Amino acid sequence: MEQKDDQDTSYVTMADILKEQEELEETSRAVLGGSDEKNCTYTMGYVGRQALYACLTCVPEARGVESKRSGICLACSLHCHDNHELLELYTKRNFRCDCGGKRMPDVKCKLEPRKEEENMKNRYNQNFSGLYCICHRPYPDPEDDAEDEMIQCIVCEDWYHMRHLDVDEPKSAKDYAEMVCGGCMEAKPFLKNYVGKIEDTNKTVLDDTVQVDVTGLDESTAATPSDPETAGPSEPKQRRLDESNVPAEDLEKDKPTVSLDICTKPPMAADKDEKSYKKGASFWVEGWRKFLCQCKACIELYKQHDVEYLLNEKDTVKHYEEIGKQKHGTDGNSYEQGMQMLGQLDRGTQVDMLTEYNRMTSRLREFLDQFVANQQVVTRDDINEFFAKLNKERRETTSSGPPPYFCR
């Protein structure tokens, strides 16, 4: 068999292609799996979380005019806006489809044509105009060569370059489950109290929380333990859970059980404390929302700041993604199926297939590079035309003589 040149970075194997397909399928299941691809979600009202798109073909003004921003559901993107210039917005919470509605009066929704009520509760951040982060740039950015991942804030749901968060990046994605950007940390200051107090939810749980009786207090003015002028000096401290003496199953069971009259929000750590909140974004471990205080005063606080969804475990992107994976079942992905089928072929056929895959991917890369260079959108018709041409060339090569010989 031909030896692979170690310096040849364009070399692509069958395993590479199938592995890439596996990653694409995993992303697709995560983003689209929990959404309905056949029915418009308008009649469902403000859906807790769903995949959304913005159509710049139908509403080009959305690029520069905030009041023109709009969003459509997955089904409408497929049935009403096929071959349009769409912005993939990942997922957003509490949103009702705008396709054919007040924000898109010139569009006729094919799936749910009667949309007379304005979607007053929808929120449209800069993502609906194709801009992201504090740098207000598109993604991907044609003028930015820096390799940097983007991460979504779970409060404002905007996306941020990791380098623009002005904090030390976690060592790995396994070190955190969610992120709150610096702007939202300032806008929701009570979250600062929990920084450094929630680490691994299987190990440490809100040590030294403060116990406060808020019974009978007016909920809109109830004191919180982070306010030294109202908390009082005689409030007893308690260790919420002593894990050294509690079995793991009991620990998990006891976590959510909090009295509505006992505030468990920890006091702000001193600035000199190593675990105190530092300015900027904050990263949170999986399950951290369970330990947000749910006393009457804090519940009122969440209402005032419009973040009651933080107490809803079904609000998390992970929960949404799990629904998508369960919806698609566990029959295996293309990578597993493809490698199993490849292993059943004789060696000669394997080599021929691998070579043809390498040739096809090389041609496809050249084809797509033209669109990148000309800043054009690749349509379904373009892809169909490419493969039709490829099949025609293959048939002509086969009919004109024996197939090319490959070293084995």
TrEMBL record:
Signal peptide: none annotated. Residues 38-114 form the UBR-type domain. Keywords: Isopeptide bond, Metal-binding, Phosphoprotein, Transferase, Ubl conjugation, Ubl conjugation pathway, Zinc, Zinc-finger. It is an enzyme of class 2 (transferase). Pathway: Protein modification; protein ubiquitination. SUPFAM superfamilies: FYVE/PHD zinc finger. GO terms for molecular function: ubiquitin protein ligase activity; zinc ion binding. PROSITE patterns: ZF_UBR. It comes from the Eukaryota. Its EC number is 2.3.2.27. It catalyses: S-ubiquitinyl-[E2 ubiquitin-conjugating enzyme]-L-cysteine + [acceptor protein]-L-lysine = [E2 ubiquitin-conjugating enzyme]-L-cysteine + N(6)-ubiquitinyl-[acceptor protein]-L-lysine. A zinc finger (UBR-type) spans 38-114. Residues 218-265 are annotated as: Disordered. Pfam families: zf-UBR. E3 ubiquitin-protein ligase which is a component of the N-end rule pathway. Recognizes and binds to proteins bearing specific N-terminal residues that are destabilizing according to the N-end rule, leading to their ubiquitination and subsequent degradation. This is Putative E3 ubiquitin-protein ligase UBR7. It comes from Anopheles culicifacies.
